Amino acid sequence: MMRIVALVCMLLFSSAAALAAPVTLKLGHIGEPQHPYGLGAEYFAKLVKERSNGSIDVQVFPSGLLGDQHDLVEGLTLDSIDMALAGSDEVANFLPELAIFNLPYLFRDVQHAYKALDSIGMELCKKGEERGFVTLAIWENGINHLTNNVRPIVTPADIRGLKIRVMEVPLCIATMQALGGNPAPMPMSTGEMFVTLLKRGVDGQECSLAHIVTKRFFEVQKFLSLTGHTYDPELLLISSIAWKKLTQEQQALIRQAAEDARDWQRNMCRVLGKSQGQRHVCGQRQCW
Question: In the CATH scheme, what is the code of domain 24-275?
């Protein structure tokens, strides 16, 4: 009898130890550390560590240290990367339904975007679980604008003939072609984009003000046009395999931290956006 009791106690202790076993998750993104979602990643890691009493450690790798966005999302499907922040345009290469959120002038303003993404967006993202990744929350990269070295862009006609770097995504390529531009698909890697702009490999590029500022594209581009033509959601993802290894309690803790960090990060976008002179409506519709 005593042996049975001892065996049961040993099994219970082992189970408890397994539940409390330390977890390390590596989170990669291409933003600079001072980018709003770079700051959000650090805040998320802090929340998780505090709420788990240090048992879950999220290690953040910014600036493309773990690869560009395609590498990151593909790594999630292969379980070679635990977590990633990636734009909906890139994730759409793996989950085509998400491409809808990158249609030009889809949203009236950011509050409209938040409402759609937190409801319809998260529902669509559930399909990603079959393809190797779980969406914890939808954060924000920002509103995309155009920079170039040739001329100010005031109306769509001003884009004609310009070679513009766009994401390696069919919708982004088609949008630039429809405007009369010459799209140059290229990943937003840390150094490559800057060097390409510096050497005039392309005339210009499209991205959020946060990337323009933190990646210092203003040093190699003459003109910034606040076209506000697309809104760019940023998804916080975790590998389905890594997710299934967590206990239900750990999953609930991480998901709640992701949502709390989402709200904090979106607010940070508004604060930093004001300091950068960003318009919080999606574009100059009277011209476009």
Answer: 3.40.190.170
Residue 279: is its pLDDT beyond 50? no
CB-based burial, 256-278: b 16+ in 10 Å, e otherwise = ebbbebbebbbebbeebbeeeeb
- Kindly list the distances between the CA atom of residue 6 and the CA atoms of 12, 20, 143, in Å, as whole numbers in the listed order: 10, 21, 62
The secondary structure of residue 117, as a DSSP letter, is I
Residue 178 is encoded by which pair of tokens? 């429809």
pTM over 0.90: no
Strand (E) or helix (H) holding 84: strand 83-87
Least Cα distance to 59 among 24, 33, 31 occurs for 24
Q: What is the CA radius of gyration of the chain?
A: 21
State whether residue 277 is helix, strand or coil.
coil
Residue 268's nearest CA partner among 154, 110, 70 is 110
Strand partners, 148: 204, 223
**Could you tell me what percentage of the chain is helix, strand and coil, using 3-state DSSP and rounding each to the nearest 5?**
50, 25, 30
Q: Which residues pair with 83 in a beta bridge?
A: 27, 238
Distance CA 175, CA 195 (A): 25
Cα distances (angstroms) measured from residue 123 to each of 96, 114, 128: 14, 13, 10
- Per residue in 67-95, pLDDT (tens digit) is 999 999 999 999 999 999 999 999 999 99
The DSSP result for 210-237, as a single string, is HHHHHTTGGGS-SEEEEEEEEEEEEEEE
**How far apart are the C-alpha atoms of 285 and 288, rounded to whole Å?**
5
Residue with tokens 């953040």: 60
Q: Tell me the per-residue pLDDT of 228-237, one tens digit each, with 9 for 90 and over.
A: 999 999 999 9
Helical H segments across 31-121, by residue range? 36-51, 69-78, 88-91, 110-116
